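One such given next:
>
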Amino acid sequence: MSRVTISTAPCDPSASLVSEIRRITKLGVLDVRDRLSTGGPVFDQALFSDRTEDVFAKARAVLSALECGGHRPLVSEAGRPITPEILRNILQASEEGAEELRRLDDLGHV
């Protein structure tokens, strides 16, 4: 399994950003504010699990919230830095592969 973290450079987060990250992650307000203030991860999960679609949606939402809030997401995969675009490409490729497997299964080829 591939573990991904998403954070941003330490900042003084706006109330709207804290609220949005809290809504996405279900973390407490003080926890979100602390993580954003110190540059700690607001997303830290294995990508490929039982709830892959939910995890993918949460990762995308966190990236979007940070970018819309004027912050540059800092992403790492398996402890190595990657760009937000690479993460989006990983998510998209995985979804496309899963969709192809479902299509082949529906046709009886898997």
Observations:
- The domain at 3-106 is CATH 3.30.1390.10 (Ribosomal Protein L30; Chain: A,).
- The CA atoms of residues 92 and 98 lie 10 Å apart.
